């Protein structure tokens, strides 16, 4: 797409390369022309205050002074994502032997995953950049969010997913209308195709490709909310699932911004990452002490995390190592067991990504990497109704009886 004059992206001032620092005007670009490094948004934070945030709407737009969006973003049709609940998980904490444990439950977003956050920001930026179609390659949750956000905004959507995606996510994307394409291949194949299409279709905003610098900033709102919901303080430890790795790096960025702006106390915190063993290139690199993340072919039930070549993998390693955290991975059986544990202890039905995160938290506790006496938050990034097949084998009725009290009694259900 030719460079378009940006009308209004609020506090955003420029794009800067994460590798060499080269600066660019705001626009529809995502890679540095000098070193091909990824670009990040830079800001003028002069309007940020607790008072302005707390006076804002109870969704991500309360943080508009920290995002690349117009100041009036809340007035345009959108799905109003964010400000999901932070649940004090005392039952789960007792089961695990942890002093204080919180679940940031992003299943409460409009399409039931954290992806509504990043899509909301991407859509706002795409409008200002002159794009006409909202598009994405996806492992499922992003497809849901893009299709819904485009429908709400009254624009066309085009989403591309692997053909072996969970049926629940296929249905919950197709229902919103728009162009919906299944592709024979894994997510990395779909992503390559999307990059090719983005190069040819000038007015298509692929949220996680050609408007990725803006899109990725939406994940910061998880970090902002955690801090605000804790009474404007940071947790001691946070455990975050890793797919592309962007969510983890942006939560860390949010914490750093809050410290820099004096909105929270400057204190140490640790960031931990979670992957499924069947797609764990970042965990493998961390455990081996490597700086390079080697791509893998995904093979896991946690399809929303099945990105074999994670774009932000090296930056995840940097954030985790800088804060003194660690990265763990868990088997599919451990994922299912952890989904069930969260459901029966806290009444929260997480999708497979949530099982990965809790399962990794449990292993980090067992290894001593995670401090059981420190205040800990972990992210449940999506709703278990999206991944029913994963738990169907273990989620069975307690009994099947005749409609009589005698049958009830004989079944030993009292």
TrEMBL record:
It comes from the Bacteria. Residues 81-382 form the Tryptophan synthase beta chain-like PALP domain. Its EC number is 4.2.3.1. GO terms for molecular function: L-serine ammonia-lyase activity; threonine deaminase activity; threonine synthase activity. It is an enzyme of class 4 (lyase). One of its GO terms (biological process) is isoleucine biosynthetic process. Its cofactor is pyridoxal 5'-phosphate. Keywords: Lyase, Pyridoxal phosphate. The keyword Lyase applies. It holds the Pfam family PALP. Belongs to the threonine synthase family. This is Threonine synthase. The lineage of its organism: Bacteria, Bacillati, Actinomycetota, Actinomycetes, Streptosporangiales. The gene is thrC.
């Amino acid at each position: 797409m030719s460079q378009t004059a940006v009308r209004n992206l609020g506090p955003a001032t420029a794009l800067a390369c994460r590798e060499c620092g080269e600066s660019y005007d705001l626009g529809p670009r995502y890679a540095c022309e000098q070193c091909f490094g990824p670009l990040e948004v830079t800001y003028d934070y002069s309007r940020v205050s607790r008072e302005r945030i707390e006076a804002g709407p109870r969704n991500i737009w309360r943080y508009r002074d920290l995002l690349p969006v117009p100041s009036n973003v809340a007035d345009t049709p959108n799905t109003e994502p964010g400000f999901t609940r932070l649940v004090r998980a005392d039952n789960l904490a007792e089961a695990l032997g942890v002093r204080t444990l919180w679940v940031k439950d992003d299943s409460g977003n409009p399409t039931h995953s954290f992806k509504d956050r990043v899509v909301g920001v991407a859509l706002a930026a795409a409008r200002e950049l002159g794009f006409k179609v909202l598009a994405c390659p996806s492992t499922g949750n992003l497809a849901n969010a893009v299709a819904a956000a485009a429908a709400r905004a009254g624009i066309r959507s085009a989403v591309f997913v692997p053909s072996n995606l969970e049926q629940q996510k296929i249905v919950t994307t197709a229902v919103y209308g728009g162009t919906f394409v299944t592709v024979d291949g894994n997510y990395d194949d779909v992503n390559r195709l999307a990059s090719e299409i983005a190069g040819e279709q000038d007015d298509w905003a692929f949220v996680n490709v050609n408007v990725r610098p803006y899109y990725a900033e939406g994940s910061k709102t998880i970090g902002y909310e955690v801090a605000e919901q804790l009474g404007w303080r940071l947790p001691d430890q946070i455990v975050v699932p890793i797919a592309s790795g962007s969510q983890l790096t942006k939560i860390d960025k949010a914490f750093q911004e809050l410290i820099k702006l004096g909105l929270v106390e400057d204190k140490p915190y640790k960031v931990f990452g979670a992957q499924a063993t069947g797609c764990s290139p970042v965990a493998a690199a961390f455990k081996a002490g490597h700086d390079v993340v080697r791509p893998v072919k995904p093979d896991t039930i946690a399809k929303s995390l099945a990105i074999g070549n994670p774009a932000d993998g090296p930056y995840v390693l940097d954030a985790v190592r800088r804060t003194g955290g660690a990265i763990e991975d868990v088997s599919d059986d451990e994922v299912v067991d952890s989904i069930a544990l969260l459901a029966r202890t806290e009444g929260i039905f997480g999708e497979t990504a949530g099982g990965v995160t809790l399962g990794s938290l449990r292993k980090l506790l067992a290894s001593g990497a995670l401090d059981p006496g420190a205040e800990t938050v972990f992210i449940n990034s999506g709703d278990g109704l999206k991944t029913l097949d994963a738990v169907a084998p273990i989620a069975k009725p307690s009994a099947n009886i005749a409609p009589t009290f005698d049958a009830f009694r004989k079944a030993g259900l009292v």
